[in-house]
Amino acid sequence: MTPSLPMILLLLGLMGAQATAPADLRMAAAMAAGLCKTRPTDIVFIIDSSRSVRPSEFEQVKVFLAKVIEGLDVGPNATRVGVVNYASRVKNEVSLKTHRSKAGLIKAVTKIEPLSTGTMTGLAIQFSLNVAFSESEGARVKSPDINKVAIIVTDGRPQDNVKEVAQRARDAGIEIFAIGVGRVDMSTLRQMASDPLDDHVDYVESYSVIEKLTKKFQEAFCACSNSATDVVFLIDGSKSVRPENFELVKKWINQIIDKLDVSENKAHVGLVQYSSSVRQEFPLGRHNNKKDLKDAVKRMAYMERGTMTGQALRYLTDNSFSAGQGARPGVTKVGIVFTDGRSQDYIGDAAKKAKEQGFKMYAVGVGNAVEDELKEIASEPTGEHYFYTADFKTMTQIAKKLQINICQEDDPCECDTLVKFQKKVEDALQALTKKYILDIVLRI
C-alpha cells in the first residue's frame, strides 16, 4: 500500500532533522515507514478483564496492544500475534493463525469485550500453554530461530496459583513479560516473569499511562540484523569476582546474546575467560543458535585466580579473531572485555593493536575496575565504548546500553540504515508525485 502524501512529507521532515533528532523520534519514523523488521516471533497477549478493570480502562489496554502491534513486522513468516482474554474464565479472542496483517489484527483487538468476573491468571497461563501456543492454533514448531513470547497485563491479585504454571510455560521455551497496573500484587508478577526480572517485570500506576510501555516492547522485538558480526566476549574470571557474581556475569552475557541476531549468516559469538592464564570457552561459529550459545555460557566454570588482562587482550588479537578460530573475512569484529579490577600486567600494546586491526572494542568494568584502563581498551569515542558500574547487580543497565551501541551504528531502529530509510521515503514520494502528474495529464 502506497503511503499517503501527508505521511511521506512528515517522514521527509523527520529525515531533515536526522542529525539532531532523538533516537526515539528516528525509531518512530522508521517504524511508521515499515522499515523495522522484527525477529520471527509467536506473541500471545494475555489480558486481564476482571471486574476490577473498568470498561474505559480496558479500552486503554486495547490501545496499548494496537500500538505495540503497529511496530511489529506482522506476517506468517515474521511475527504472529494472538490474544487471550481472561477473568474467571478464559477466551481465545485471536489465535496465532487468524490474522496475517496488522490491519486485521488491530481491527480484531478493537472488538474485544471485557469478561468482568474474577481473576484466574493461572488458568489463563495454562490455557495459553496448552491452546494458544499449540500448532493447531497457529504456533510454529519449537525452534531456536522462533521466539515464543507471552505478555501478561493484570491489575490485581490472582485467585489461583501462578508460580508453578508460569514455570512450566518458561520451561516450554515461552518468554514471559508481566505488566502490573495499579494495586497489582508485585510478588505475583515476579513469579510469572522470565529472568532477568528487571527486563520482564513492568509496573504502571494506572491504565491511563500504560501506553508509555509501547516503545519498550517495540524495541524489544526489533531484530538487530543489519549485518554479519563476529562478537567475542573476554571475561575476567579472577578470584576477586567471587562465584555468586560470576553467575551474574554469565546472565549478563546471555542478556546481550538475546538481543543479537544469531545465525549462520549474521552474528557469531565466541567466549574467552581469563585470570592468571587464558582459556577459550568456545570459538566463533561453534554455536549458531541462541539456545546452544546460552547453554554453553551457563556451563562456563569459574577460573578464580589472578587478573592478566594484557595477556587476554593479546590472545584476542592473535587468536580469537583469526580464521582458524572461526572468524569470517570482511565481517565486523566486536570485542567485549569485562573486568572487575586492575590488570596485573601491561595492557597498552595489546589494547592499541586490537584497535589498529579494526576491532570495535567495548570495555565494561565493575567494582574495583580502573576507569583509565577501561578507556585505554575502548574504541573511540571512548564515552560510547566503555561502561562502569559499582555493583554487579546493576550490570543489566549496561547490557541495555551496550546492545543499543552495537546495533545503532548505522541505523535508526536497530534494523535499517538512515540512508536506506531516506532513500525509501524519497522513492515513495517520487513514485507518488509521478502518479499525480500522470493523473493530471490523463484528465487534460
The rough form would be described as elongated
Helix content: 40-55%
Instruction: Note the gap between the termini.
Output: 27 Å
Which stretches are low in confidence, meaning pLDDT under 50 for 5 or more residues running?
1-35, 408-425
Number of helices: 17
What is the element string, with H for helices and E for strands?
HHEHEEHHEHEHHEHEHEEHHEHEHHEHH
Average pLDDT, all residues: 82
Work out the number of β strands.
Answer: 12
Task: Describe this structure as you would to a colleague.
By secondary structure, this protein is an alpha/beta fold. The chain has 17 helices and twelve strands. The strands form two sheets. The chain has a six-stranded mixed β-sheet, sandwiched between helices. A six-stranded mixed β-sheet has the order 9-8-7-10-11-12, with helices on both faces. Helix 3 packs antiparallel against helix 4 and helix 10 packs antiparallel against helix 11 (290-298). The chain is elongated, with a radius of gyration of 24 Å. The model is unreliable at 1-35 and 408-425 (pLDDT under 50).
Features:
single chain, about 450 residues, alpha/beta, six-stranded mixed β-sheet, 17 helices, about 20% strand, disordered N terminus
Describe, in short, the structure shown.
The chain has 444 residues and is α/β, with parallel strands linked by helices. Helix content is 41%, strand content 18%. Strands 3-2-1-4-5-6 form a six-stranded mixed sheet, sandwiched between helices.
